[in-house]
Amino acid sequence: MSEGPSAMRVGILTGGGDAPGLNAAICGVWRRLQDVEAVLVPFRDGWGGVIEDRVVHLDPRHMHELVTRGGTILGSSSANPYRDPGRDVPRVKATFARRRLDALVAIGGEGTLLAAERLHREEGLPVVGVPKTIDNDLSATDFTFGFFTAVDRAMTMIDQLRTTADSHHRVMVVECMGRHAGWITAYAGVAAGAEVILVPERPVELNEVFQRLRTLRATGKESAVVAVAEGCRILEDGRLLSSDEKDEYGCYKVGGAGEMVARRIQHALGWEARAIVLGHLQRSGPPGAFDRIFALRLGAKAARLVMERRFGRMSALRNGDVTDVALSEAVGERKVLSPTFIDRYQDFFLVPALSP
Amino acid sequence: MSEGPSAMRVGILTGGGDAPGLNAAICGVWRRLQDVEAVLVPFRDGWGGVIEDRVVHLDPRHMHELVTRGGTILGSSSANPYRDPGRDVPRVKATFARRRLDALVAIGGEGTLLAAERLHREEGLPVVGVPKTIDNDLSATDFTFGFFTAVDRAMTMIDQLRTTADSHHRVMVVECMGRHAGWITAYAGVAAGAEVILVPERPVELNEVFQRLRTLRATGKESAVVAVAEGCRILEDGRLLSSDEKDEYGCYKVGGAGEMVARRIQHALGWEARAIVLGHLQRSGPPGAFDRIFALRLGAKAARLVMERRFGRMSALRNGDVTDVALSEAVGERKVLSPTFIDRYQDFFLVPALSP
Amino acid sequence: MSEGPSAMRVGILTGGGDAPGLNAAICGVWRRLQDVEAVLVPFRDGWGGVIEDRVVHLDPRHMHELVTRGGTILGSSSANPYRDPGRDVPRVKATFARRRLDALVAIGGEGTLLAAERLHREEGLPVVGVPKTIDNDLSATDFTFGFFTAVDRAMTMIDQLRTTADSHHRVMVVECMGRHAGWITAYAGVAAGAEVILVPERPVELNEVFQRLRTLRATGKESAVVAVAEGCRILEDGRLLSSDEKDEYGCYKVGGAGEMVARRIQHALGWEARAIVLGHLQRSGPPGAFDRIFALRLGAKAARLVMERRFGRMSALRNGDVTDVALSEAVGERKVLSPTFIDRYQDFFLVPALSP
Amino acid sequence: MSEGPSAMRVGILTGGGDAPGLNAAICGVWRRLQDVEAVLVPFRDGWGGVIEDRVVHLDPRHMHELVTRGGTILGSSSANPYRDPGRDVPRVKATFARRRLDALVAIGGEGTLLAAERLHREEGLPVVGVPKTIDNDLSATDFTFGFFTAVDRAMTMIDQLRTTADSHHRVMVVECMGRHAGWITAYAGVAAGAEVILVPERPVELNEVFQRLRTLRATGKESAVVAVAEGCRILEDGRLLSSDEKDEYGCYKVGGAGEMVARRIQHALGWEARAIVLGHLQRSGPPGAFDRIFALRLGAKAARLVMERRFGRMSALRNGDVTDVALSEAVGERKVLSPTFIDRYQDFFLVPALSP
User: How far away is chain C from the Cα of A181, in angstroms, using its nearest Cα?
Assistant: First the structure.
């Protein structure tokens, strides 16, 4: 990318787990900065690329179509200058100096943005942020990009699994992403008409699940879908049976929650049950329209923050509008499904997993 | 569906063009009414079914999964009792009496809801509404269901068409739905990175389009996508060349706008151009997650209006919340892309079609 | 379905695991039998439905579109009259008599067809078969329906997972169906450009896999996909490390093969690796065009065998033509990837997993 | 790509309309040539690139994944040295000399391969071919790549359109590719359960179509799909009403066949009918598994022909095996749906369009 002698120079990085929309956010930053003929300095693999001063070459002819692509063209990592701040914070500052950066846009989750916030507050570095978490559990913003794409993917896979559930008269237990918040599971489960939904926010007794399934079966239903979050909390006689524990079979499991629930259902009800873990299929591939437009806007807003030299802030969605908040808000309270949300769906979806 | 002697009896119909989410809205009405053990009386093919007292049998075992399905299980039509009110309004009232209806939920667009509003206002019939238009051009609600599914479909098809555009170094002119409003075209075009977007809200001179494409080509770009709304308004030397006119080839065309633009581009620039009309592929098939959840909520809200005997109103989304408004608002001003929207995207998307 | 007094009466069942195309095969049987106005007697859940004389109601208005749907409308099970032949074989014969069956079409895998073959050979029952195994490991037929749909699904999921692999510079280990034969893994792996493919037919030393990945990485490749069959055979110093064994972490695992390979790669190469199990997502949902047409033809052929009273036979694809073979051939040798196949791909795909 | 002093140098080009699998064929050529460390010289835009000596840069790190991508990375055109042979044939020969080509692989349809054949026969140039036509109408090979992907796409779109057809009780007339052969229409129509299929190979009276639809409607069917090939031949009182003619409305139409059929059905039966043209959506986007593997094999076979110096030949699929035939066979008789094929489906699909 050509540059005049006085062009503004803006670094950019993506950190943490990938989410559909990262490339759209990069695209939004780039497009807005085109207006002022700024030069983009694209760091590789999150903060690691800034620490080690490694950059990526971006072909300007392909920047326009970046909005359509999954993953992140910059690469990502969970590297963080505050793991070894004595060594790495100076290296970050050296990179800023060497690259003559006027600003840096950090796109990432809690870890990435926390580092951005400290670098701004403690070191005075000109940093702005774009929040990212596929789990949608960030209180600073109404939604995070990638979330609705993940919901659509999980829903579509549940839709598809119905043919096997129906043919074999089975319960399919579908494990969705969400260690601490049930957003993806709840939205995908409601959208796909899951018969039971289990989320971290509302511990549920196994007996409630069994009872719900027995009732359904008594009405002539021969198959069912149980949507469970990775981090759902399940009780047996008041004792937490979370997937973080070893289960009765003595193993910690990848896909622990779904497998555990499926085995218990089959054992208790004599209703054949199978577990499937959707895993990375929820986060890989191209973003949906909602997330593309949303991430473009968040990226463009971050670029505007840079142009206005409003450092220490990040773009966010509040009440349907793109606005900005302090970077420190990214690391506040985790946003979980509210009792209101759970109750709203409980009362007409009859979802016992969401009931008290 | 079994019924006690005193069960509330609620009619339901869907009218107008189909939109993904109609079945989810029906499902939402049904689920909420289950709480009070109301009886659903499902009329066939919109107001036509009420006029002629034709009902559909719904299997309660399949109502739960209705949320996942495209189209409308009730069937739809544009029949309207006010075409021949002297004959048909009494027939509607007779059906209400014969079926002992305590209420009726009308799901539909402007025509369907206008009839509902008059039947309530002039005849005192206990009617509530759920607004529906895939074009998203209803000012009474932030969004309408089906819209985001249509955007996702159009975007995905544009993504796919890129391989042919690239291989043949062509301009693909993609005609999207939207006779009076450019919502689908604008959202799908932005999400798919369309190089030019043409909408009804902003008349554009053909020369501007040519100039934009020439500039792109000069940077080395060999293919491009032009997203055009059915009803886009194109000027040639200040004269409107809309697709409603005969073009210079003497024919009125289905797919007129796209075809006309493609021919002009190819002729003026010597850049091979092809038109494709996405048509019904934008509105058919299962809804996306956003529309399923949204339509469920609108349907449930309408059922609650029935339970609260708040007739003459319809459910709506306002500032992100599901609420209710007067039925008369359904037939107010058409909501089009705002100058603000167009300007926002103009300034970082460089979309000349959206510029003044 | 109406019937004349002398109409031929033909039972039909589907047994074993579901595969995309079962409904198309049913549709093919039905369509052909329409020509002779035969009556279809659809048994529920495989041989179980014949033993217990349980039938399914099929709506003739929906038979036509059955070709498009995944799963089996008849339901399936692994019930078999030869589990308790003293009790159940007479019950099968009683059902034949009570239902006045002129023939029965059994659609299923090895277990289902073996029972069909014995009932024909030992009891003289008028049975024909349609072979089904999603694993494509039946030597009696060139391909089995469902296989190509499963390959397409697995390939599409691998394509999608590339964005996450690329963004995180990871190895994705993708576990495909195939306990005894590597067909799905090999076809999907080749089609998706997997860098390593591991199948049951060719035991491979872990060191070979590591070496292959090291070589790739040395050329600058930062991510890779390893496609592994459930039943792949992996050696460590000549000792079989199959997924049927407990691994070094002391657990037997669902998704054992993929998880084991991922852990070993990450440990040996320091290259971050993740496993994903595609599982039921490969077999659920609607069939692709190839399998729809193929299953229709196999079903129609089976109906013709019935009409020609050529019992004890089943339809099959041989050298691209639909023909028929003895039912006993269904239970012969398992068809696995041939050395020729493996060598063909080895020599130009450089797939070490397929090399000696 | 590095090269030793004596490395074999092999040109490659793709010509004609794009088809899913072109990149896979390029990938197959490249992979096989890797074995002998040959140098690939990739010409841009078919014969045009050879005439003007324009080449494309291919990044070896991305060649492996080329198998997954739609379109052609080389670009394509219908340029042909025999349009102006006096000028262009010498230019082709000059490029061969300047680039020191030991061979050239021409991937393309009738036009591309005919030029290859003449250049080999008349000029002695070392050329081999890979046949390509999405229409599957090449008699030299059992199938052509891209065809099954197009069938799957058309089928999936028809499946999707059913929800709109059902909701509005309409006939959807779906126009598929195929000017001279009905392969795509017939396969997609059979796979999607189309109620009527109209192909070029079998002229049909409109009255037959009307009669078929009336019969269906009399059985209670309220919607239907009519699959028509672009080049279908429709008669009215024995007079051909092809889409190449002006219709009664005075216009020649893109999408002429489908539109014409829809209007006539609606007029004659009073059954609402809509036409949709699938167009480029059938040929764009990534290939399916079948076509990827098939095109890889054809490409690899062509590379082997080069290595064995068997010029003047092209790879082909014959009776399920990849083999080679003379280039001159590419330009023989067009392969159309056989009467046998039509009869086979006629007799159990009751497809009148395919009946005599």
Answer: 22
Model confidence pLDDT, tens digit, residues B275-302: 999 999 999 999 999 999 999 999 999 9
- Per residue, what are the HEC states of chain C? CCCCCCCCEEEEEECCCCCCCHHHHHHHHHHHHHCCCCEEEEECCCHHHHHCCCECCCCHHHHHHHHHCCCCCCCCCCCCCCCCHHHHHHHHHHHHHHCCCCEEEEEECHHHHHHHHHHHHHHCCCEEEEECCCCCCECCCCCCCCHHHHHHHHHHHHHHHHHHHHHHCCEEEEEECCCCCCHHHHHHHHHCCCCEEECCCCCEEHHHHHHHHHHHHHCCCCCEEEEEECCCCEEECCEECCCCCCCCCCCCCCCHHHHHHHHHHHHHHCCCEEEEECHHHHCCCCCCHHHHHHHHHHHHHHHHHHHCCCCCEEEEEECCEEEEEEHHHHHCCECCCCHHHHHHHHHHHCCHHHCC
Written out in words, the top-level CATH class of the domain with range B9-145+287-331 is alpha beta
Nearest Cβ partner for D187 among C142, C289, C303: C289
Q: Which fold has domain D9-145+285-331?
A: Rossmann fold (3.40.50)
pLDDT in tens, A188-244: 999 999 999 998 888 888 998 999 899 989 988 999 999 999 999 888 888 887 655
User: Is there contact between B and C if contact means ≥3 C-beta pairs under 8 Å?
Assistant: no
Select the CATH number that applies to the domain covering A9-145+286-331 from these four: 3.40.1190.10, 3.40.50.450, 3.40.50.970, 2.40.50.1070.
3.40.50.450
Over residues A276-304, the pLDDT tens digits come to 999 999 999 999 999 999 999 999 999 99
- Sheet (strand B204-205) strand order: B204-205, B234-236, B239-240
Q: Which of B203, B210, B159 is nearest to B337 (CA)?
A: B203
Q: Is C135 a catalytic residue?
A: yes
pLDDT of residue D138: 86
Which residues of B have a CB under 8 Å from any CB of D? 17-18, 22, 45, 69-72, 75-77, 157, 159-164, 166-169, 172, 222, 250-255, 259, 274-277, 279-281, 283-286
In the structure, what pLDDT confidence band is assigned to residue D202 with cuts at 50, 70 and 90? confident
- The pTM (predicted TM-score) of the whole model is 0.94
Residue C300 is predicted with a pLDDT of: 92
**CA A262 vs CA A172, A267, C116: distances in Å:** 8, 9, 33
For residue B3, name the pLDDT band (cuts at 50, 70, 90). low
Tell me if B9-145+287-331 shares its fold with B150-282.
yes
Return the domain boundaries, chain A.
Answer: 9-145+286-331, 148-282
Assigned CATH class of C149-282: alpha beta
Please write the tens of the pLDDT for every residue from B137-162: 888 888 899 999 999 999 999 999 99
Instruction: Say how many C-beta atoms besides its own lie within 10 A of residue B124's C-beta.
Output: 11
What percent of chain B has a predicted confidence (pLDDT) above 70? 91
Nearest neighbour of C193 by CB, restricted to D35, D67, D347: D67
Total beta-carbon pairs less than 8 A apart between chain C and chain D: 104
**B163 → closest Cβ in D70, D160, D222:** D70
The hierarchical CATH code for the domain B150-282 is: 3.40.50.460
Would you call D31 and C219 a contact, using CB atoms and an 8 Å cutoff? no
C48, pLDDT greater than 90 = yes
Higher pLDDT, A342 or A274: A274
Q: How confident is the model at residue D125 (pLDDT cuts 50, 70, 90)?
A: very high
- Could you say which architecture CATH assigns to the domain A148-282? 3-Layer(aba) Sandwich (3.40)
Q: What percent of chain A stands above pLDDT 70?
A: 91
CA dihedral B138, B143, B145, B149 (to 10 degrees): 120
